[in-house]
Amino acid sequence: MNVLQNLTTFYDQLPIDSTYRNVAGKILENLAEASNATIFELAAITDSSRTTIYRMLQKMGYANYLDFHHDLKQAVNNYTYYNRIIPPSDILDSSDIPSYCSRQVNITSEAIEELLNWGRMEKIVHEVMKAPVVYFFLSHQSAAVNSFQQNLALAGKPNGIYCLYPDQLTAAKEMPEKSIVFMNTIEFAESQDVTEIFKEMKSRKAKIILMSTSESRYEKYADSYFVPLHDGLSILTSLLLEESFFLVVSELLRYHYIENKS
Questions:
Q1: May I ask the CATH architecture of the domain 96-259?
Q2: Which of 1, 42, 72, 214 could make a disulfide contact with 5, Cβ separation 3.0–4.6 Å?
Q3: 53 within 8 A of 26, measured Cβ to Cβ
Q4: CA distance 198 to 51
Q5: Angle, vertex CA 209, rays to CA 260 and CA 237, nearest 5
Q6: Residue 251 pLDDT class (50, 70, 90 cuts)
Q7: Cα dihedral 244, 148, 1, 48 in deg (nearest 10)
Q8: How far apart are CA 220 and CA 147, in angstroms?
Q9: Which residue range or ranges hold the HTH rpiR-type domain (predicted)?
Q10: Residue 112: exposed, middle, or buried by beta-carbon count in 10 A (0-12, 13-18, 19+)?
């Protein structure tokens, strides 16, 4: 994930009384100032110490302040390229946004029919239930994944979601052999390199399903993509397709292993 996703996810998952949550929150509230700050200046901006900042950055997967500062400065100065769901060429006026989303929903509906093959989904569900543990290495939590996790719990299948690099790496090192992992990767130039995580998972013979609709640079480590590769899908359609995938797999698991358990 990129630095802004990292900060936001880190902030969201911490309890309200966490010192690190307070530091991350103040960085997010003062991005322009923080992106140009030295470590001493950032300590003043966040009402914290350099030690606290260093420890927080380690928990986010950064080896040093220089790497974090570089990524933050890049993200703030070039935000036009970050967090963009709709291409600017498709928006001439704000009224174009709802109509664009409507068109993408229609495209997603067609993609679901074409790409979320029933037989393939059924196979994934049965593979999930054969695995010792199910892991979600994702950049964010979602309602669809949460629903899937609840059904996995009811079916007696251990599972967990890990969003931050250090947590994913630790989980990869500790996962039982032949676990199954649903993993999405943010592959912009400024995103964290997760090669070490993939190598750890493969050393444990994990089955890795990539949550991507386009070719990943980590493809050689994966067993499959969640759908057949499909060039030309928009970011919005890909996101909706991923959510739909988890909802379908979740409901199939519920049908076979909870409501019609033999």
A1: 3-Layer(aba) Sandwich (3.40)
A2: 1
A3: no
A4: 30
A5: 90
A6: very high
A7: 140
A8: 30
A9: 1-79
A10: middle
- The predicted model scores a pTM of 0.88
Cα–Cα–Cα angle for 197, 203, 204, nearest 5°?
95
Name the band, by pLDDT with cuts 50, 70 and 90, for residue 190. low
- Within its chain, how far is the Cα of 154 from the centroid? 24
Nearest to 214 by CA among 247, 195, 188, 193: 188
CA dihedral 170, 171, 177, 178 (to 10 degrees): -140
Mean pLDDT across the chain: 92
pLDDT for 204 beyond 70: yes
Q: Which residues pair with 15 in a beta bridge?
A: none
Question: Could you tell me which residue, 185 or 104, shows the higher pLDDT?
Answer: 104
- In the chain, domain spans: 3-81, 96-259
